[in-house]
Structure formats: C-alpha cells, structure tokens
Hints:
By secondary structure, the chain is mainly alpha-helical. It has helices at 12-23, 25-35, 55-71, 76-93, 96-110, 130-140, 146-152, 160-174, 178-187, 196-205, 209-226, 239-246, 252-272, 291-306, 308-317, 319-327, 332-335, 346-351, 362-388, 393-401, 416-431, 433-444, 452-468, 472-493, 508-520, 525-533, 538-553, and strands at 6-9, 278-282, 285-289, 355-358, 562-564, 573-575. It has a four-stranded antiparallel beta sheet.
Amino acid sequence: MPWKSARYLISWSQLSLLVLLLSAGLLANAIAQTAKPPASTTSSPKPEAKPKLTPTQEQGLRLLKAAEAEAGALEPAMRAAVLWQVAHGYYKVDKPRVLLTLIDAFRAATTVEDDHPELKCFLVPDECHSKTWLQVNILREMLTSPQKVEELLPQADPDVRPVLTGELISKYVRDKKLDRAQQLLLRLSDEKDFPYDAASELMLAVPSDQQRVAIFNQAMSNFQTFGEGKFGLIAPEDLGTLVIRFWRHLPPATVLEAVDQLLGQAKTESEKHDDNQISLTTKQGGVSFSPYQYRLFELIPVLQELDSSRAESLLHENVSVAGALQKYPDGLRSLNPLYRDTPATQEEQMADFPSMTMGGSASDAAADQVLDQWQRQVLDLQIRVRKEVRTDPKKALSTAMAIPLWGPSGPGSHSPRTNTLAELAVVAAKKDPDTATKALEEVRKVLDQMKPRDGGRLLRRIAETYLNMGDQERAEKALHEGMKIAEKLYASDTDASEPNLALKAEWLSAGLWRRLVTLATRISPQLAEQLVADISDPEIRALQKVSLANALLGAPDYPFRSIAWREGGHDNTMWAF
C-alpha cells in the first residue's frame, strides 16, 4: 500500500490520553465516584448534598441548562460535542449526572452520519471525521469506569473499538488487572490495527517470561497477517520496538524470525517507494533513513548478539547504517533509552518526546535539517530571553528584538520574535509592567501583517497579559479585536470554495471564540455573555455558552483542539489559541 506520510510523537496515543485526562482529571474522578456501587449498609445511603452555589455559579448553572436544552435541536455531531462539555459543568453541581450526560453524548455521536467521506485521514484514531473522533474521546473520559466503556464499546464504530480496547488494556495494566488486560489483548489478535503500545505495557507488567513470549507471539502473528500496525509500517511502538525491548526474554529463534519478517517487509516497502525517508530526532541526536535502513539501524544491535556473521554482512552492505551505528551503537536505544524492558518513570515519560517524521524524499530530509539548524539558533536566543527576563527584563527585551521577526517563509509566516515578546510580557507583567507594555506594543505593530490564526492567538495572550497587569480597559479592547479576527476565521471556515471539513466545534474560529469568552469572565460575566451573543453561528454559540457556563462554575476546561481539515490535505492545520 502507499506510504503514509505523517508526523507524530513517540507514544502519541498515550500522550493524547494523558493530556485529555489531565485537562479533565476532576471529571474522571467524578465518573469513578458515580460508577462505584454503594457500600453495603443497614440503611439507605444518604444522597450527596448539592453544593451551595455563589451568584456567579448560579448564573453558570442557568447557562449550562440552557445550552443542554438547546443541544436537543442540534445536528448529532454538535449535540454530542455540547453534551460532552455539559458533563464537565455538572461535575461542580451534580456529580451523578456526569456519567449519564457523557453516555447521552456518546449515543448522539453514534448517530452522526459519515461526514465528508472524501476527506482521507491517515491518523489513528481517525481524527479527521467527527463521528469516530467524538466517540473515541467521549469514551476516553469514561475510562475511569472501564466496565461502562466495555458495555458501550459494541455500539461504537468498528474503527473505534480496537483503539479503545487498546486503551482499556493500558487502563487494566495500570490497575494491575493483568488477567483482564490479557483477555482483551487476545480479542485483538486477529484484528487489524494491533495495539503494540498496549502490548508493550502489558509485557512490561507481567511477572514471567512465559507470559511475555505468549504476548509477543500474538503480536508477531498479527504482523504476519496484517503487516503494519495502527500507526503505519514503522511506528513509535510496533513489532520492531517489542524486539529491541524484550529480545533477552524471548527464545532466540522467535526473535530471529521476527527480525526476518520486519526486514523483509521494510525492504519491499523501500523498493516500492525508494524516495521515502524516516527521520527520528531526540535530544541525544537524530537519523534519517529509508524504511529498510531504519529497520537495520533498529535491529542490527540485536543481530550482533544473536547472529553476528549476518549482522556483519548487513553492515558491509549498508555503509550509511554502519556509520550511524558507530555513532549510536545501540541503534534506537541510543537515541531513546526508554526502549528498554523496565517501565519508564513519570518524569522520564514527560522529559523528552522524540519526534518522528515519515514520508518525503531525501531532499526533503535535507531541507528539514536546514530548517532544524535555523530553529536551533532561534531556540538558543529564546532560551536566553527566558533566563534573562527573570532577573533583567529590559535586557531580555533587547535580546528578544534580535530574534528574526519572520520565519524562513518570509513576512506573514511564523514570527518567532513576536511569540517570544508575548511570552516575555507574561513573565514581566508583575515585575516590570513598563517593559511588558513595550513588548506588547512591539507585538501589536505587526498584527495586521499576520495570518488571522496567528493574530488571534497573540491578541488572546495580549488581553490576558493586560489583565494580569490590572489594565482591564486595554484587555477589553484586545478581546473585541480578537472577536473580529474570529469572524475572519469563521469566514474562512465556511468558505464554500474550500470549507473547513473538521467538526464545527473544532474550527479555528470556534477555538478562538472559546478562549476569548473564557478570558472575558475575568472582566465580568456580563461582558462574556455579550461576546457569546455576538457569535454569528448558532451551533458554535451554544457550545460557547457551555464554555462560559463552565468557566463561571469553575469546572474543568474541555480538550477541544482547533483544526482546519481541507479537501486534498494541503492545508491541514492543528492550532492552539
């Protein structure tokens, strides 16, 4: 099959789940509490007393209920999105309704029609189509009640089931319910998109090598049948990484058989698509290879232990791989020490996520190296600014002004200087408000030259910084300017010639409106309600009403991204406001 071009991070699925759970951790606890059966007592348990609400929270609850009522008239995708976020608000005022509302949201997501089948998506899970994306993420929020997720999973789309089953396996591993995890993994043995990441977690957790061998054999059998895993031919966690992690725990004949299969498939892929490159970059260094060379770099350190003559022959045939292994003798494990047979600590998991780029040609890889060099130079200056601003904000401002105003693409592209100035202003706001104000003035000078998405993000940061400095008048002005930019983004999202095909709740305009509305609550709830009323799209307006309600209630923020999916894939953007 054609090579899939994608850019992602090691342990992407775990990272996505971690971010989601962190953003709604309180909600997850509420679900767990709701799902627990009541303790056996001689008398009926008393219902949990509802908290006494402040006037601001009363206003939030009123808005929450209004948005929930409006959701019934929305199309299924936006109904699911709104109800999903309503569940966050109920955590603060009615915990038993949290899980029930999420179930309603999930059921709405199952009725979504296959939106934009012409939009091709190579992400796993499919994040390009609202039906699968909503189901995956709503079920993820219920993972603290795994039995409920298992109960609902048969109603989910076929593409959703293996993804959530893999995450259920990871959940059961964390909960030390290893037998249940192994039972679920066995279900996926004959399914496409085998969860190698969950299998790796389970192999790290089981107590015996006999169990590791059984799990590895499941993975190898699946690879023999389907070849690639859910992230493509070569991925952050796949059969190859299971080999380099656990080969010492497996029979040598089994390991060598797996090596043969991995090298054979990678060689075929490289011959079919001889210009494809895979690049891996970590703080220890980086490499760029064809798929076959990448597998050699990964597996030859194991072959040197089990079949040294074959390893020597392969190195002789592949000079570039031999050179890389002289620099990185343990292959992938030299670049990422977390590829080992013991679990990573939480600090290690968050310390450095290697980036992997797949697809493109050798010339693309060379261009990437030039760009990386430019980025490193900019990063060095940005690091200086971050250090200086804590002791000498004026010196930090001078250093920031030496950073290039525009990226390599020229005016209107990414602006490292303005982003650094905005960051500097946030830190200097309390200590040196004059310097912070000067930094913000420099940012404002170029806002009209920026793309709306860049300008919107900066205006949001400008408004927030002014609020931190106690300047509500300038903050409110920035918010209103941001609302105008959101309307420009909305015009782009709804452009009939090239509309944004993403779920409306994830449009760039919706993302900016959400951040502006939430920020406006720090000035006054009335201003925030006014901003919501000014939103032109009724479905987005209903969603932002929930955003405002949750802000007033003090409920967890929701984890929507801001995305533009365009037909043809030439302008697919994930943004953060």
